[in-house]
Structure formats: C-alpha cells, structure tokens
C-alpha cells in the first residue's frame, strides 16, 4: 500500500516538475543483455527520456552498449549500416534518418541519456530498440510498448 502511494506520488511530482516528460531506465550488462526487454511508455507522455546504464565492468571497446530506436522493420538494415560506420560513429551511420533516437556507446559504469518526442511515433507502427555494437543486436533488443495514460482516472474523465 505504501509502495503504491509512493509510486503515485512520484508520478504526480514528475508530471508537475516537467510537463509530461516520461523517464525510463534501461540497464545493459556484461552478459550482452538489456535487463528490460520492453520499454513501456504512457501514451500521454509528450517526451520520453531514456537513460541507458551500463551496469557491467568491461570498457566500451570490449563490451560497450548503446541504445538505438527504430521501426522494427528497420532494425537489421540500420544495424548493418552501423557496422560499416564503425566504432568512431558508435556503430551508427551518421545522419541515418531511420534512427529515431540513440545514445552513444558506453562502457561499464557509464550512463547516457537521450530524449525524444513521442509525437515522432505512429501508434500503429511497431518500434524496437537495439544495441548497434557488432553482433549485439541479435540478443540486445526490446520492444517499445504503449501503456495506458500515466494518470488513468483523470484521462478517462477528460475523455468522456
Ligand atoms: Zn551491446
């Protein structure tokens, strides 16, 4: 019960502090995995701020990870283009329009943040995030999923 109240309070404070910027954390590990296989975003977030935390110990050139969001159908093409772009470009092709949002590659203990507008996404489209380090995308990926409004009762009242 206390936990629920705290969570509700935190959501309320977050909404008050920054108009509808929703914060999500994704953890990446030395086991070449994202701890989170889905990224839940409330449909009433105007912007989503993703923080990637590399909880591992290995340096970026050994087990570095990034976070790249594209349409699900673009994942393999963007990953391949990134491979050619090389480490100097974080394995992301510079100016690749298919990349909706991305972080740089980070090593163990580091974190990187990226913010994007939810308005860039089509709710009917499927979106996947993946790690563009060579060979990682096969395992390191997850799906962006919409969840109901972060303030369900209010939104429901407004809608009807
Ligand atoms: Zn990775």
Q: Top keywords for this entry?
A:
160 residues, alpha/beta, five-stranded mixed sheet, three-stranded mixed sheet, disordered C terminus, binds zinc ion
Q: Any chance you could write out the topology, listing elements then pairs?
A:
Blueprint: H1 2-17, E1 21-28, E2 38-42, E3 47-54, H2 60-63, E4 68-71, H3 75-85, E5 101-102, E6 111-117, E7 127-130, E8 141-147, H4 152-159
Parallel strand pairs: 1-3, 2-8
Antiparallel strand pairs: 3-6, 4-5, 4-7, 7-8
Zinc ion binds next to loops.
Task: Outline the structure in words.
This protein has 160 residues and is an alpha/beta fold. The chain contains four helices and eight strands, in the order αβββαβαββββα. It has helices at residues 2-17, 60-63, 75-85, 152-159; strands at residues 21-28, 38-42, 47-54, 68-71, 101-102, 111-117, 127-130, 141-147. It has a five-stranded mixed β-sheet with strand order 2-8-7-4-5, with helices on one face. Zinc ion binds at residues 28, 32, 65, 131, 133, 136, 140.
